[in-house]
Amino acid sequence: QVQLVESGGGLVQAGGSxxxxxxxxxxxxxxxxMGWFRQAPGKERExxxxxxxxxxxxxxxxxxxxxxxxxxxxxxxxxxxxxNSLKPEDTAVYSCAAGSxxxxxxNLYAYWGQGTQVTVSS
Length: 122
What we know:
By secondary structure, this protein is mainly β. It has no helices and eleven strands.
């Protein structure tokens, strides 16, 4: 299995930016598609962004399209989520996930990090 550890969360004002990182263990990182999900208190976990194992294709939730960018550096076993123009409604715990499929459904990702808190103040 793969171990995932997120970092980079914090408190930011509306309109600001954060870059989240997800570091993976092992030497088979490039064999996994990667995704970012988020969950706010009292709400269901929702899809944010995903990237193929080579980084050649990406997809985004409509709510973050044009503001967030997912990328990966397979040499560093790391996937990133660059978040710009943050809004209060982006406040959530953000988790990265690894799976064998490039998909938007959480239940198709087998491995999860513990998440990092992102809080956007108005």
